[in-house]
Amino acid sequence: MPIIKIPLNKREIKVEIPEENFLGVLEPNPIQGLNNPMEKIRESLIYPTNSKPLAELAKGKKQVVIVITDITRPTPDHLLVPAILTELEKAKVKSECITILIATGLHRPNNKEELIERLGKYVVENYKIVNHVGTKNDLVYLGKTSYNCPVWINSIAANADLLISTGIIEPHFYAGFSGGRKNIAIGVAGEETIMFQHRPQVFDHPNTQIGNIEENIFHANAMEIAEMAGLDFILNVVLNDKGEIAGVVAGDFKEAFYQGVEIAKKVYQVEIDEQADIAIAGIGFPKDANLYQATRGASCIAFSKYPAVKKGGLIIIPAETEEGVGQGLGEQRFYNIMKSAKNYEEIISNIRLNGYPAGGQRAYLMALTLRHAEVCITNSKTPEAVEDMHMKAMNNVNNALEYGLKCYGKHAKIIVLPHSLQVVTSKKTVNKNNNIVK
Fold first, then answer.
1. Cα(359)–Cα(144) distance, rounded to whole angstroms?
2. Domain at 116, CATH number
3. How many domains does the chain have?
4. Which structural domain, as residue segments, surrounds residue 297?
5. Dihedral of CA 378/384/389/391: which sign?
6. What is the pLDDT along the chain (438 residues), one digit of tens a residue?
7. Phi and psi, residue 50, nearest 5°
8. Do 229 and 109 belong to one domain?
9. Among the residues of 76-144, which ranges form H helices?
10. Burial of 317 per CB tally in 10 Å (0-12, 13-18, 19+)
11. What is the Cα–Cα distance from 171 to 209, expressed in whole angstroms?
12. Which regions of 274-423 does DSSP assign to beta strands (E)?
């Protein structure tokens, strides 16, 4: 009987799956981590893509802002930010002229302990660090994009004479891929800007799809916002299935991002030739801290071009969700919209008729996810919140599998995605002779 390891918070759990039901394990493609990631990071800052070296860009700058992801993203900022600071020191930029801005969007602020874990004690104690708050008045209006999106950006970022962003490039179910422009266009944007980009019309567009940036209107609008905000330079990484740095890109936010997307595609895009009845979707730290983030695993499956689970199937997500639905404004709106409706179809129809506030987009996407497959959260410390949101809560994965086999029959096929946020599935292509096209 196959025994599969699945992440749960910062540890792993083992799940036994009957041989006759086991369809296989879907992992990101095996890409080796860099032997010396710090050397590659330093090199990318000195020889960036379509840009002067960072130290040269920084000469004479008085207001340098480094935008970093919040703790819901596993960005290795403990490596990226010190490397950036070293280049700024070479340019003789004083530490008091540097601000590190946390791209929280509408998530909760990050506390000092979390920042120390993310950046290291020295950086936290020696540099100014600010949590972005998308609902505050401290925003600057920059006009509208060609999509008529009002652009409100954190004044610290907007007033910088050198705006830098770190991040990771990984699959994202409406941006196509995260990273690059998104840290600015969402992470340090105002509520009105965030809300515009998360309208039902954006999500219902046929090209708003995980792993796709071609004619993706969310991506195109976000690129315009980053341009208007004056994003000068990015330092982004691509991680492999082990969380190791597999690729580093830096420089012009457009060209470097597109380079990173090509690396990410090699890691994350996986072809399958059969859909399962049941999927076990691993999330792990830090995404499984709350339901807002943990349920993304189910959405990544449902929004893939060829979902790993059949329509009407079951997605099982082990997640402790110690923060419940989440503590930020967006998370609370997600919960309230989900809880207030009788079922997911009511959520979809209400939102298409009346819209939603920023943060409520997760409710819409989750309702569309539930339309595709039932979702069961196991190991949750807040099972009541799970049930409130039209999902099943069970003690452990084994209980959920027993339920799934009872619903779909003893011959039901089970597939496992230990890192569900890092896999984008499409159907294997065949030629006219039914030979697999490799």
1. 21
2. 3.40.50.11440
3. 2
4. 3-28+273-427
5. positive
6. 789 999 999 999 999 999 999 999 999 898 999 999 999 999 999 999 999 999 999 999 999 999 999 988 889 999 999 999 999 999 999 999 999 999 998 888 899 999 999 999 999 999 999 999 888 778 999 999 999 999 999 999 999 999 999 999 999 978 999 999 999 999 999 999 998 998 888 888 999 889 999 999 999 999 999 999 999 999 999 999 888 999 999 999 999 999 999 999 999 999 999 999 999 999 998 889 999 999 999 999 998 989 999 999 999 999 999 999 998 888 899 999 999 999 999 999 999 988 887 778 889 999 999 999 999 999 999 999 999 999 999 999 999 999 999 999 999 999 999 999 889 999 987 654 555 443
7. 50, 45
8. yes
9. 77-90, 112-119, 121-126
10. buried
11. 10
12. 276-281, 309-318, 373-378, 392-394, 414-417
pTM of the model: 0.81
Cα→Cα distances 419→21, 88, 304, Å: 20, 36, 14
Distance of CA 275 to CAs 206, 279, 377, 399, 427, Å? 21, 9, 21, 22, 9
Residue tagged 């997640």 (tokens):
319
**Residue at a domain's end among 207, 232, 267:** 267
Instruction: Give CA–CA dist 170/304, Å, rounded.
Output: 14
Q: How far is CA 36 from CA 31, 170, 247, 248, 275, in A?
A: 15, 21, 11, 11, 38
Burial label for 396, CB within 10 Å (0-12, 13-18, 19+), is: middle
Same domain for 262 and 145: yes
Structural domain contains residue 249: yes
Amino acid of residue 429: T
| Residues across the chain | 438
According to DSSP, the residues that pair with 279 across neighbouring strands are: 315, 415
Q: Which two structure tokens, joined as six digits, stand for 384?
A: 């009541």
How far is residue 298's CA from residue 375's CA, in Å, rounded to a whole number? Answer: 7
